[in-house]
Write a structure and sequence with these properties.
- By secondary structure, the protein is α/β, with parallel strands linked by helices.
- It has nine helices and eight strands.
- Helix 4 runs parallel beside helix 5.
- The longest helix has 23 residues.
Length: 232
């Protein structure tokens, strides 16, 4: 099977899962954007994905993301930065990203705004919320109690646009329970920021749970691309 055929099959299966989850939740499938996470995979895969109708691509590491975005600049893709973000790399990430999904502390906001300065459109920002139980260190993310202050800080910057929230289900926990907590956090957030309606949640193993609680973006890697290349 050619690589294009492999990717087409993976995409078809994931799109079918999204459609089924939307039907179960009484949602329109057009409400959910598929972000294909291409970390460790070559730019040639990104080109094939674009040819297969993918419009949004996610990356976790700045160096790899910057290189791929430059190599695929002619494709008109929306690049989502979804990995842990260092403040000294934030301005550079803002230069090529359409969306930065992993803003979890105020220290990142100034550098992101500087990197986004001069763009035709503001940089879309999602705040990454921690879903880990209190007292347990796990995934990255801002504590829900600290979310209002971080949102207010982002809204001070004219070159940034607060779009909503991002979260990852904690390791070893039922994602349905974690995403139920996320739905509550999101409801409170949208009540204060009515235009910040995006919710990026759900990966290859738990996208159905995320769609059920209102995710507008799902971040899918292995279910589309297959296992990571050897040595990664």
């Amino acid at each position: 099977m050619s690589r294009r055929a492999e990717l087409a099959a993976g995409l078809a299966a994931v799109r079918e899962r999204i459609a089924g989850a939307c039907a179960d939740a009484g949602r329109d499938v057009d409400e959910v954007t598929l972000v294909v996470v291409t970390k460790f995979f070559p730019a040639s895969d990104v080109r094939l994905l674009a040819d297969l109708g993918v419009t949004d691509v996610g990356e976790n590491r700045h160096q790899e993301a910057e290189a791929k975005a430059a190599e695929c600049a002619d494709l008109g893709l929306r690049w989502h930065f979804i990995g842990g973000l260092q403040s000294n790399k934030a301005a550079a990430v803002a230069a090529y990203s359409a969306v930065v999904e992993s803003v979890d502390r105020a220290k990142l906001v100034g550098p992101l705004a500087r990197g986004a300065g001069g763009r035709e459109q503001p940089l879309d920002v999602l705040l990454q919320v921690s879903l880990d139980p209190p007292g347990r260190e796990g995934r990255a993310g801002v504590d829900p109690d600290d979310l209002p202050a971080l949102a207010a800080r982002v809204e001070q910057e004219q070159d940034l646009r607060l779009r909503g929230l991002m979260a990852v289900a904690p390791l070893g926990e039922d994602p349905a329970a974690a995403f139920a907590r996320l739905a509550e956090v999101r409801a409170a957030h949208v009540a204060e920021h009515p235009s910040a309606t995006w919710l990026s949640a759900g990966m290859s193993g738990d996208l159905e749970h995320a769609v059920r609680i209102g995710a507008t973006h799902v971040r899918i890697g292995s279910a589309v691309l297959g296992s990571r290349p050897a040595g990664k």
